[in-house]
Amino acid sequence: MELTSSTWTELAEVETDLAVLPVGSTEQHGPHAPLGTDTLNAEAVAEAAAERHADPVVVAPAIPVAVAEEHRRFTGTLWTDESTFRAYVRDVVNSLAAHGWDRVVLVNGHGGNVAALGEVAARIVRHDDAYAAPFTWFDEVDAEVNMGHGGPLETSLLEHANPETVREDRLDEAAAGASDRWGDWQGRVNLAVDSHEFTENGVVGDPREGSAALGEELLDEAADALVALLDAVAERDPRPTAE
Amino acid sequence: MELTSSTWTELAEVETDLAVLPVGSTEQHGPHAPLGTDTLNAEAVAEAAAERHADPVVVAPAIPVAVAEEHRRFTGTLWTDESTFRAYVRDVVNSLAAHGWDRVVLVNGHGGNVAALGEVAARIVRHDDAYAAPFTWFDEVDAEVNMGHGGPLETSLLEHANPETVREDRLDEAAAGASDRWGDWQGRVNLAVDSHEFTENGVVGDPREGSAALGEELLDEAADALVALLDAVAERDPRPTAE
Amino acid sequence: MELTSSTWTELAEVETDLAVLPVGSTEQHGPHAPLGTDTLNAEAVAEAAAERHADPVVVAPAIPVAVAEEHRRFTGTLWTDESTFRAYVRDVVNSLAAHGWDRVVLVNGHGGNVAALGEVAARIVRHDDAYAAPFTWFDEVDAEVNMGHGGPLETSLLEHANPETVREDRLDEAAAGASDRWGDWQGRVNLAVDSHEFTENGVVGDPREGSAALGEELLDEAADALVALLDAVAERDPRPTAE
Amino acid sequence: MELTSSTWTELAEVETDLAVLPVGSTEQHGPHAPLGTDTLNAEAVAEAAAERHADPVVVAPAIPVAVAEEHRRFTGTLWTDESTFRAYVRDVVNSLAAHGWDRVVLVNGHGGNVAALGEVAARIVRHDDAYAAPFTWFDEVDAEVNMGHGGPLETSLLEHANPETVREDRLDEAAAGASDRWGDWQGRVNLAVDSHEFTENGVVGDPREGSAALGEELLDEAADALVALLDAVAERDPRPTAE
Amino acid sequence: MELTSSTWTELAEVETDLAVLPVGSTEQHGPHAPLGTDTLNAEAVAEAAAERHADPVVVAPAIPVAVAEEHRRFTGTLWTDESTFRAYVRDVVNSLAAHGWDRVVLVNGHGGNVAALGEVAARIVRHDDAYAAPFTWFDEVDAEVNMGHGGPLETSLLEHANPETVREDRLDEAAAGASDRWGDWQGRVNLAVDSHEFTENGVVGDPREGSAALGEELLDEAADALVALLDAVAERDPRPTAE
Amino acid sequence: MELTSSTWTELAEVETDLAVLPVGSTEQHGPHAPLGTDTLNAEAVAEAAAERHADPVVVAPAIPVAVAEEHRRFTGTLWTDESTFRAYVRDVVNSLAAHGWDRVVLVNGHGGNVAALGEVAARIVRHDDAYAAPFTWFDEVDAEVNMGHGGPLETSLLEHANPETVREDRLDEAAAGASDRWGDWQGRVNLAVDSHEFTENGVVGDPREGSAALGEELLDEAADALVALLDAVAERDPRPTAE
Which InterPro entries does the entry link to (chains A, B, C, D, E, F) (predicted)? Predict the structure, then answer.
């Protein structure tokens, strides 16, 4: 049940306490992939899982701007302060819970959101009338290609679920200006706060290693993992654990 | 230029300092119109104006959840605190401005956002490196039908721009449970903070008074008004006026 | 019962749950009217209504500095951030409510406060142990003259209730430098965040169109409207509606 | 120059960089003195000093509600959170400074405000374009009677400057229910956060020990001290010291 | 029972509701005393009292950085914003209370913390499930020498409890550059927000007037006062008084 | 150069721009290790590296209470809100930078702090006059034993650097009640926000697998990694990158 396209009277008849909130980002993904990559991919996984789940799952509209200041030097990247982002996510989850959808999975498509989502999910679990768990789709798949940034994993999922958004004719250019690895490392500390310090065109990894076929597998795998998580989340108690 | 579907390299070649940020809401719009009504309509107006404008206009992704606690009792309505909403809008505008798109119109589709948008736009004008102006599309059209809520104006624009989202077979039901007027008034003070106090099914006004043809006129009129506003905004100085 | 001049032992004997909180501003009102115009007028209306009301009404001290940054370029204007203003109003209302005066009307004398008062009143209604409603006196009167700023409405009420504060010998000067209309408009969007952009001497409208006699009528009308609102507010439930 | 009663054009001609901001409170002062005692006394001292000072001194409107939760159990006491109070004071001082009045004395009439005023004054000095110093009038006088609360010092100043506000016929009652000393002490730690724990009727000290004549002396002494402070403050640099 | 060196299983067996939280500072104390002076002294008093008390007293780790911006110009001084400091103290007290240790004395070693501690302790008493009282050790001793800063009181306690930290060979230098009095006074107002305005080497008072023997007496006296305070605090109700 | 034990005059002679800020926690570490484990270990690594480094390195006092609400059910655990923690760390780093020590490594001993430290370090790098990098000691060592919690890594370092704090006679008990793995997992999502959900006595891993000899190696390895990081950090530009 997508909130955006449903009426309130239709939703009032749905019996469920499960919801997913896609969390994306508007940020550079190299010369070949759109700024909406993370949002599109999070939506694809959220919708696929909602369809597959045995019980109804409410799908909230995706949060389009998130924690992405790291890409600030690449044109078009938008971002919000982590505190604002957490407050926004928390308010959305709590309004979902106000309608009885109080077990919420935050379906995330952007690595830069992971820490902030972990913090806000824990705060919701401890202090609000809802249970929330973050789920980052590319952490849940087993692939022989790297995650990178605008790399084969993300590009493959786009090629499968939103093929018109990938500039196939720029994949070579994307690969040529890419770096091999995220960050500028000393030991296990990344010294570079922003990505332009270590990637020329914003890409990390070689997007040519992906394919629409791989994207289909990834979506399948991620959606299954999310369905399994929803089943587990359905068993959690939504009451605040720390009050 | 839609940010969501563009790549950063494409955007880097665009010469403009104009951007529009659609601001919607996810909230009940009666039994006949979807929760995404305000977002869809704001996007439709923003995109139409961006297409018509002589110079390129950057179109940011729509903010999907906003100031809508007033509809909290109708299933599916999502909301955020006004402070969080303002902070989120301000961050998005400032990241647009970081790329040189520092004259931004906030294209709004929801009456409940008006006050908060006015406050944050003034703060941006006075204190940030950007000029921002709020534009609420239905305030800019001259129509013989009322605004209401889920009423003929909003429904008409949906019927034109997103016809599949309107449940035409429920328009009678929508009209039957609608109230005539927004609010519970004593003099010119609305005593009712929340809408369930004065409307049974969430509708104000009679959506049957609208039509797709009217919607086309409304979109035309609103898009023209927005184009004219963009021209005026292009002349404003983005530097902070109060520092 | 004015709080400022009463003792706590006198107040402890009052049986009422009604209070009014005058909300003014310290801001330019042209060469003919004092910076305290909005505060003086809000107090005049609040006191007149409290006197007329059948049951006792507690009158809190007026808030003297509010949302007036728009007049920052005119000497002597004071202002506070909207967030601080709302927090201050909320704290005052909640301390009134702590004594059992938990139906509070915010009697406002300044247009720039309207949005912020609406926001904080709704927050109080939903989340605190009080009911609050904003009342802007000049929105409640039917007059053939315009509101403007330092214009005939405000000047008339001063001429009646605080005649010594009006510089009658500068009314011509006031009118000469006044603008006809508030704002610098493109369609229905005011592009000018600050008033010096559209008024030379800070005045909007012609204060000579007013008079003490009109002021008496305005006070009468506004006080009656406020009495009626107090009666309506007395019926509201002070408990938080959203918790 | 009182801001409240002046016009902006009059103020624009004043040559000074000195301002005083009276800071009061609305709180119980026993059965004999009004809730506005602290505000009235702060205003009296501020105005007297402004009159005596050789150069013009701008007098801002008094802040009427401040840090007084300690009296919450006595009817009519109003209070605001310390953080809100500091933000409000800081905004007012900064708007005074925006007009060139950037050496500001906070003329305080309430002991409960002292700590918060000290904190905000230091923040202004270090970080804002203004110099601010707190001045609590009763700390600057040498009297043989105690301060207390609603005691001889405060009552005397009222009896001189606002004699109609003192209920002389209740002085005996005030004294009868008064405590000797502020607080409930263990060593030099006051265990009682709120005043009802140690005073039956809110009074500390015997207000009968004061008189209008003493009040005249106190006003004289406090106003002289404030004039001297203004002279010293005029020599301070308003630029931020920590940036 | 020191938290830092105990295991949770040991603490789980302790029967008490008393805790002390040492609050220090890292700030200049002249050429003879270490930056940790206030922390070391607060710890010494807290530990001595905990040992002497008949019932077990939990000793939290000392807060090492506090309200010390006034010493910013002397190398090595660290500080935090007052708001952050209060939030940090409040969180620590509330986590102590979560384990049943809900009567907490804030054992303070720094004059600059006094106002902020008073504010946060009152907030805890009124709004949280704990009772908290601030205790500043040097306010509780009767000595013939002055407090000053890095002066005889503080130096003596160091000489007794942490003798290795005092540079005895620099006491003459310390005294030579010291000022007699804290502040730059006009009447009873200190015009100097920062200490470098009135002391050349950061010292106020003559540290040579102290001694280890005096330090022993001071520790004895302060510890006894704290034991007595703990006894009094044990009788207070930890429930919030204002809710 | 430890700040706590140094005088400001000594520090004023040090020529360096490097500082380390140990960040610990006060939280349960099973029946065998003290609540101060993370603080003690962070201090040990910070001090060892400062000693080894060719140039002087300023050592700030350790932050003793941090992000540890996850252990709230185990007696004695203290915690602060993540926002407060970040604000506290940021203030300390900025006061270090005010003395010219503007390349700061946050030497962390607690896994629960990692996300919050990453966020605040990036904020400092982008917006403040300092460069900061987080360093979590146990992420920098290569060991054949697991990290766990109160497990072999942490216990070994204690056994070497603070042997008196380890209850060797309770290692068997610690191991008996330990869990094998941190968290309650569904796929790669940890469903358990708090640790008591998956460990009986708070321990994860078998502390008996460690030893003082291993601890010595770990300290050596971690200190070397930190020295190398300090060398890299010394090359970074402390100016804000985003302003």
Answer: Creatininase-like_sf, Creatininase/forma_Hydrolase
